[in-house]
Amino acid sequence: MADIFDVVADTTRRDILGVLLSHHAAETTPGEVSVSAIVAELGLSQPTVSKHLKVLREAGLVGVREEGQHRYYHLDYAPLEEIEDWLIPFLSVDFEQVVADEVALAGDGLKNEQKAFAAAIGKAVADASHQVSAAVKEVAPKAWRK
User: Fold this and answer.
1) What CATH number does residue 16 fall under?
2) Residue 15 sits in which domain range?
3) 90 and 69, same structural domain?
4) pTM
5) What long-range pairs does 66-73 form, CB within 8 A, spacing at least 24?
6) Are 49 and 102 in a shared domain?
7) Burial class, 5, CB count within 10 angstroms (exposed 0-12 / middle 13-18 / buried 19+)
8) Total structural domains within the chain
9) Tens digits of residue pLDDT in 15-58
């Protein structure tokens, strides 16, 4: 099986995942989209879409339902957990620096005490976010959280 990061690195595959996600809330057969609908929506050739769907299917990112000669694809969120697990630490580590940068951009109108206070709040929020993420990861099963 291909590395999940290599699979989602391709723009066309991300576009296909986006189409499937946009159809997820459909009223009839939620999330299922025919290959021809994907072809029409993205303006790509059928062989190109089929090639990319095969890669997505082999990576476990999509599932398929066959109905005669037609194929209906839907998202499978479970493999995205690996990306989520890798990404979460990056979202909270530099939060304090982002807040400090925003405070600096606000201009010299802020006093040093206010800048320090804003940085402390940013750090507290980042720490709390990281702790909550870690707690959820330990308690929750490895199923996609909707």
Assistant:
1) 1.10.10.10
2) 4-75
3) no
4) 0.61
5) 70/34, 70/35, 70/36, 71/34, 71/35, 72/29, 72/32, 72/33, 72/34, 73/20, 73/32, 73/33, 73/34, 73/35, 73/38
6) no
7) exposed
8) 2
9) 999 999 888 765 555 678 999 999 999 999 999 999 999 999 99
